[in-house]
Amino acid sequence: MEIRHYMQEDEEKVVELWNRSCVVDTIDVRRFRRQAILDENFDVELSWVAEENDRILGFIYGTKRKFPYLERGLEPERGWINVLFVDPAYWRQGIGGKLLNICEAELQRRGCKSLTLGAYSPNYFFPGVDSVNYLQAVEFFKKHGYLAQDQHYSMGKNLHGYRLSEETQQKKREAEEKGYRFIAFNYSYTLELLEFLRREFGGGWKRNALIAMQNETAEDVIQLVLNREGNICGFCMRAIDGNPMRFGPIGIGKKERNAGIGGILLEVQCAEMCKKGIYRMYFVTTDDPGRRYYERHGLEVFRTFTRYEKQI
Questions:
Q1: What proportion of the chain, given as a percentage, has pLDDT over 90?
Q2: Could you read off the pLDDT of 258-286 as tens digits, one per residue?
Q3: What is the average per-residue pLDDT within 108-132?
Q4: Strand runs (DSSP E) across the chain, as ranges?
Q5: Alpha-carbon dihedral sign for residues 12, 14, 20, 24
Q6: Domain 161-278, CATH 3.40.630.30 — does that match?
Q7: How far are the Cα atoms of 154, 218, 281 from residue 246, in angstroms, in the given order?
Q8: Rounded CA separation 117/196 (Å)
Q9: Any idea what DSSP says for residue 129?
Q10: The CATH number fitting domain 2-151, selected from 3.40.630.30, 2.40.50.580, 3.40.30.10, 3.30.230.10
């Protein structure tokens, strides 16, 4: 068996092996290419395959930022193990350990002191490790010194026949009587929205809205709340990765967070999705407080991920 760096001609073989190994998270070549190979920080020197007799048995790629990511910058002491998988027919033969060791060593050589599994922004495949569907991965990474951190939840809701409840309609009327307005985005709010998102939530949220504006989809995917003065105080978006069902992010400005408008905005976005024939909404990750909040609005957890880190 040979361990060598990934090459372009490996693309289809790696994706085929991915789909036999990560059976709950199958992908196609286009998604692999978009989120991995075409990520600005992808580096073949941090990507390896295990090969025997022209057959790829395993694959790993790690990341250390070469380009700053918004306000996070380069995060010079941080690295990621984005993906690691081995042909199930060759499990427990040391292939995964060899791939992990060589990737960790190169990340350490480049100055990384902390490694995270998945959870690489903006192009992560996994927000952590799914211990239900990949129990063997949990055992493997614990064996190699990775420690569990916080949990994150993927949640969703069926929107077939969805409509605003009487309670939500009443809350919306009361909020409107106080001067709030719930509207779809239009381009007259472009600069105000971008500044609101940067100030209240950071560059990642601004980036999502900016891409939608550039792609001319913002009027379709963004809902706003205006306060009594007519200024933006709330924001909700969907389809940040191009999938029309993907919900979020959603947020209310600090000064208005006790006004009860966040839940109304969430329900308004769900109603707009249903009108467009989008009968399922979901998001990939939220924390424990977020889970409890969304459960009050009828969402259910469909996957649980644990973030794992290792100090090297």
A1: 99
A2: 899 999 999 999 999 999 999 999 999 99
A3: 96
A4: 2-5, 47-52, 55-63, 78-86, 114-117, 147-158, 181-184, 222-226, 232-238, 247-252, 280-286, 300-311
A5: negative
A6: yes
A7: 11, 14, 6
A8: 32
A9: B
A10: 3.40.630.30
